[in-house]
Design goal:
transmembrane; DMT family transporter; globular; mainly alpha
Length: 291
């Protein structure tokens, strides 16, 4: 029961990032770029505190090292800014689904690039997920804004690269904290170089509070919960658990912002989430094991 509850809290936190970002940016409470900067600063502070607290209690790694983090920091920044910019026009659930699908496709292509052994079920799963993304972007009734969808897909590529860069990290929480801390000065510099973008929508107290909640709570504490429970779940169950995130985000958007869920989102969700589930299940569960 404890494993289920902690996993559920982590998934709620991940979905909460979409809802909080949408509430702040679409509501005109803060500019997307300013939201991203506040989020990374708050996330860095919270993650640094969590790592330091763990160190004080039980010893171990304080930081995972500063060298060789260029790819991880770059991927993180692309994700953060693309995520915020996309939510100026995308519903919470739609954005989460595009992000999720783009991450999975990026991870799949990364495995091919690295010449890893890719079983047939991952080809099928990646194809279904990509088909779901194409359906979301296809012209017609209920189509999503192409520019915003492209920004979210770019955010998914960034997070995919971030995940690929950090796969060999011995301490995922410490590595994430280090990446967030290193991303702060870059994000602040980007904001300083583009003052007209940051000032397009003056940041209100509500917008800043939502951004800090997204960084410190649903990002920082959410990642801490996830990395604590992931070893018990395993890669397969962990990937399947994350299938709930777009659904939770859509429900949160409907309940808190009044966003609707149309047929296109429902069908695309079935393709993307079904494809990822098929690709993530062990061979014996997906019916591929020969007896």
């Amino acid at each position: 029961m404890r494993l289920f509850l902690v996993t559920a809290l982590a998934m709620l936190a991940f979905a909460g990032n979409s809802v909080l970002n949408r509430m702040a940016v679409a509501g005109g409470a803060i500019d997307p770029m300013a939201f991203a900067v506040w989020r990374v600063v708050a996330g860095a502070g919270m993650l640094a505190l969590l790592v330091a607290f763990r160190r004080a209690r039980s010893g171990g790694v304080v930081w995972a090292g500063w060298a060789g983090r260029g790819a991880g920091v770059a991927g993180l920044l692309v994700y953060l800014f693309g995520f915020s910019l996309a939510y100026a026009a995308l519903d919470a659930g739609t954005g989460a689904l595009i992000l999720f699908g783009a991450v999975q496709v990026t991870m799949f292509l990364g495995a091919l690039w690295l010449r890893e052994d890719v079983p047939p079920r991952r080809w099928v799963g990646a194809g279904l997920a990509f088909g779901g993304l194409v359906l979301l972007l296809a012209p017609g009734q209920g189509a999503v804004p192409v520019m915003a969808a492209g920004m979210m897909a770019l955010a998914g590529v960034g997070w995919g690269f971030y995940s690929l860069a950090g796969r060999r990290a011995g301490d995922a929480l410490a590595a994430t904290a280090a990446n967030f801390v290193l991303a702060v000065p870059v994000a602040l510099t980007a904001l300083a170089l583009l003052p007209e973008a940051a000032e397009a929508v003056p940041a209100s107290a509500r917008g800043i509070v939502l951004a800090v909640l997204s960084g410190a709570v649903t990002s920082g504490m959410g990642y801490a919960l996830w990395y604590a429970v992931l070893p018990q779940l395993g890669a397969g169950r962990g990937a399947v658990a994350q299938l709930t995130v777009p659904v939770i985000a859509a429900a949160g958007g409907a309940a808190l912002i009044g966003e609707g869920v149309g047929w296109r989102f429902a069908l695309a969700s079935a393709l993307v989430l079904g494809g990822v589930a098929w690709a993530s299940l062990p061979a014996r569960q997906s019916g591929l094991t020969r007896r």
